[in-house]
Amino acid sequence: MSLEPRGRAALVGRNGAGKSTLMRILTGEIIADSGDRFLQPGLRVVYVPQEPVIAGDTLLDHCVAGGAVDWEAGAWLSTFELDPNKSTRGLSGGEIRRAALARAFAEHPDLLLLDEPTNHLDIFAIETLEASILESSAALLVVSHDRAFLNRVTDTCFWLAHRRVRTLDQGFVAFEAFAERVEAEEAEAARRLAKAIERETHTFYSSITARRTRNEGRARSLEALRVQRAELLRDRTRGMELVMDQGGLSGKRVAEAKGVSKRFGEKVIVEDLSIRIQRGDRLAVVGPNGAGKTTLVKILLGELAPDQGDVTLGTGLLTTYLDQARAALSETDTLWDALAPTGGDQVMVRGRPVHVAGFAKSFLFKESQLRQPVASLSGGERNRLLLARALTRAANLLVLDEPTNDLDMETLDLLEEMLAEYEGTLILVSHDRDFVDRLATSTLGLNGRGQAAESPGGWSDFIREYPDFFSRKAPPSPSKTPTESAAAPVAKRPAPKLSFKDQRRLDEAAGEMERLPAQIADLEKRLTDQALYTRDPKRFDALTRELDEIRQRLLKAEEDWLAIEERREALA
Question: Is the pTM above the cut of 0.85?
Fold first, then answer.
């Protein structure tokens, strides 16, 4: 492989393929076992690893340690919205990443190597990085899972797979079609090789000459074919299969927030937010780092109380939450402990027991890793482990907080396919614009100033509808036109109220939605008695009919409640 001046190349490959190792060979940190590495004399190479380390008392100290001029280092820190005098202690993941990138650009590299540079960055920092790369005169080699980012900044692709590097002299936008074509050609070559071995084996063992004499040439030819096929099979990567048990249906209403406000001191997270999430919705929550996306999700899940307003959760919810900090994993646990926390050698997957080793293998973990601590896993492996744990549990509400960090594109594709087929409700917090565009049916934006706006569709749809929502100048509230925002307050007529009949039914439906789920759970528990049908079939039939009736009553109550609530909002 070779990099030309000012060329911008993507290095693509699965987790574990060796992308980071190859980058470190290019920098000279690792010496290759064989082959040649050549750099133009005097070439300045700057490498930002996947887990950068920030040293020094202040961010400015860190940035000038590599030889950058003070004022230029400070300017780049400001470009990435960092205070040069900020201490290097207690930095967030996004601040660490931005400080490392600021130092890299301040050093005026001729060759810039970036390993997963978009991890922990919000969409706006990613856009700053894109602009900086496009304006730079440095050659670039970048490893990233962010398709939108790679589509914008690359003009070449290196594909590391099966211990080989293939080159595509086009940007990442053309990579997927290229990869499909190469894989189809390799599959056809493997098919022809298998047929050749089959023919040669038949000829060798059926030939009278071969039986009577030692035909060394033909034997060597057959053995060479077998070795070639063994090499091909060894290089063939195992595929993952991501499936999820949705469990039972939740109620039609999953969660509803009315007039919710939350602040921490002077920091306003959200103010007067009302939103309804219904069964089957795919809600993406977007905004800058620190805007309060994770806080809002916890409020919607009932894990955190709002300062004002009400949150009502629906019935029959089975929730699985993958947090961005991977807090569900203990560093000292082994991979086996993490997959089977209650002990034993089996996990339940979609209602059936599966051996831990076999389940781990389906997520591309080797058996030798089962007794290693979680601390030894890479970022991508930890995310795969969290996915594996999540898929052992039934869930009709799936909450994913930055799920794309550290995952390779193949795993992202599988995750996306699984989520596309998932019939439950999804709440997604992500800075991956392409991922949000592909999955979200609606997008909720938080701008960090307490304002929230919702739009049908993904990130691109949101920006088209609210182009200035995230700008530094606070835009008008999305619920008001600029004229309405600037107008003097006027006296409002009292809003029309619900009819007595509708209000009474609304109260009745709310009571049934609180009461009936407990009755359903009790009947379901009684019907799990396997001897009941044999002992008293009439009683079993009566309980079954009663369960169906109560489920229908609950469904009717939910539908009536939603319809009347919508009428009340329209009146208001």
Answer: no
